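Whether sequence alone determines local backbone shape is best considered at the level of individual chains. In the encoding step, the backbone of a single protein was reduced to a row of integers, each denoting a local shape. For completeness, the protein is quoted in full, as a sequence line and a line of structure tokens.
***
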Amino acid sequence: MPDNQAIIFFDGVCNLCNGFVQFVIRYDKGGYFRFASLQSEEARPYLTGNGIDPSELGTVVLYENGKCYTRSTAALRIFRRLSGAWSLLFAGIIIPSFLRDVVYNFVAHNRYRWFGQKESCMLPTPELRSRFL
């Protein structure tokens, strides 16, 4: 994969996660991010190669520069690359991850109850298909 791209692995049946992917697509003007569901076969080698259990769906995973980032660190690194004021959220990286992840884990634990889930992963439109693995 080129150095000018990263992959976001997300829970493909989670409405919150799918909404986050749509949000990233909207503000990723340079097309830096590609996407794949955590449940996909395409995700497996990236995840297992970085010591992440593919059945762990409670986190977004960012694969960037050969390394995987999870939970709040992944989210903040994603925001850093978005256009507009969203990149300013990366300043939250100064908060220790064990504190940031308390909030992240609370939302992740309740995401199905609050936002629901789909029967299957979203299908990208033909225009976006090239951005998905």
The chain is about 35% helix and 15% strand.
